[in-house]
Amino acid sequence: PHPQPPSHPQPHPQPHPHPHPQPHSHPQPHPQPHPQPQPQPQPHPQLQPHPQPH
Length: 54
Known about the structure:
Layout: no helix or strand
């Protein structure tokens, strides 16, 4: 018996072409701010004199 050919063949879907993303030509470089190193003043601890127990 002759097989009935499919009347409606599945159409091949059109492949969606992926658009090439725009390459970042020259990205703006984030300027790194040089922080001024603030010298932390070291507090001199008041030396409490221990009383010499006699």
